[in-house]
Backbone:
């Protein structure tokens, strides 16, 4: 099925470092969502974005809805060990019935 | 805190057997989704319900998969017969409605077909 291009696929960082990941699509989305998934669990919603250019924060997490509507970015500041997991972007467009299209995920590892 | 409930959490079955998964969405959520997630990939939508009606089942392999939400609350996803390639995480999500884009996921059912 259709998926977004999410990068990087994996990241290995030191505790305290900042992290950036992004998601791109060939088509326009009306909504961008960012989820975190721990092993063996379901995805947990982190941030939802609804307007082009929108910048939204949730604690140490900040996400942006790209101006072109074809991309989105997630930044994590001052990473801590519990940030470990897989981060997924998901896009939704009205002409696809509102279903979410997911990226392949970015696996984050944090070294204490 | 309201959560999406799923059971069982884990299921091991042999190929050609029937399996069923159950989902109870967050109270008041009219829209319910079943996703399948293969290891190393993002979830992919199988079926979407609005109340008791199927809105989108275009990606549901209808020769072996079926889904129902008879009273517009909880839902069951069935596979009969299971095949080796069905091994995956099956996730249920819900939202207030199709126009409310924030979907909340349950813990999932990890299916292993031997």
Residues:
């Amino acid at each position: 099925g259709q998926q977004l291009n999410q990068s990087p696929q994996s990241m290995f960082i030191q505790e305290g470092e900042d992290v950036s990941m992004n998601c791109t699509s060939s088509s326009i989305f009306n909504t961008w969502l960012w989820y975190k998934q721990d092993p063996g669990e379901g995805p947990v919603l982190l941030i939802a974005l609804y307007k082009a250019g929108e910048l939204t924060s949730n604690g140490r997490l900040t996400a942006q809805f790209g101006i072109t509507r074809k991309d989105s970015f997630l930044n994590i500041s001052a990473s801590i060990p519990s940030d470990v997991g897989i981060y997924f972007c998901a896009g939704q467009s009205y002409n696809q019935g509102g279903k979410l299209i997911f990226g392949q995920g970015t696996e984050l590892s944090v070294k204490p | 805190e309201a959560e999406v409930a799923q059971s069982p959490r884990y299921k091991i079955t042999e190929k050609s057997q029937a399996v069923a998964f159950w989902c109870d969405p967050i109270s008041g959520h009219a829209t319910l989704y079943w996703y399948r997630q293969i290891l190393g990939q993002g979830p992919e939508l199988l079926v979407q319900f609005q109340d008791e009606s199927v809105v989108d089942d275009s990606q549901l392999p209808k020769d072996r998969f079926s889904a129902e939400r008879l009273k517009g609350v909880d839902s069951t996803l069935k596979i009969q017969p299971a095949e080796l390639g069905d091994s995956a995480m099956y996730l249920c999500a819900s939202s207030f409605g199709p126009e409310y884009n924030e979907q909340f996921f349950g813990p999932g059912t990890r299916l292993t077909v031997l």
Observations:
- Chain A has a mean pLDDT of 93.
- The radius of gyration of chain A is 13 Å.
